[in-house]
Here is the input.
Amino acid sequence: MIPETPLPPTPLHMPVPTGDQLKAARTASGLSQAQAAELMGYPLQTGSRGGVQSRTWQALESMSDERNMQGPVFAMFLLLTGQHPDFHLERNKRPDSAHGPEAADGKETASSK
Here is the structure.
């Protein structure tokens, strides 16, 4: 069997989002700030009223805070929530792949729409 030649990397447009753009993407996905933060691996804290919150995510959405989400992280958020304008995630179905259906880690792959 001839080994499959890897495809060249696909460039992604990865702009740094404004706080408003990040909030719009999060609300379009139906996620709370805490759920979005958990999806992206940001830390969660117990809020003053006992609920879970992410101060990091709050700062990223804030117009008064100087912190911004990095472009590649925003692109991954859009991919994970099905909002990327050019790509979507799908499970790799190649049986010869280390990330195929039999792989225990269940990794996802990006593909063009």
User: Anything to note?
Assistant: The longest strand covers residues 87-91. Residues 100-105 have pLDDT under 50 and may be disordered. The CA atoms of residues 30 and 81 lie 9 Å apart.
